[in-house]
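Hi R.,

Here's the chain you asked about this morning:
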Amino acid sequence: MKRHFVFVPVGDFILDGKRICKTDERFPDPPHVGDNVLLLAPNGPNWQQKQDEPFLDLQDDSGLVTLRSNSTASLPARFRRGRPELSAARAEDILARVRTASGKEDN
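And here is the predicted structure, written out as tokens:
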């Protein structure tokens, strides 16, 4: 699959001249053009991603981390709770934590 899609129930857009804004504190800020995302999909016995399916089923509201083009990161509320230092985390620090947690420190 060259591209994958995820549904994020957060956004801000204009439709027929009306501004529509949907927020949800549980989710990080949606990505902008030039940003990267870290997608966390479930990994369990009852979950199977179809290889030809472009839509990824993320792990609830904690399945998306936005890595901003300015090197900051926007984390889901679950990861920020009780950790104020993560609210201003740098993207490379978040990636280092994920690599360490997954045992893949050189990837």
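One quick note: The first strand starts at residue 11 and ends at 15.

Cheers,
M.
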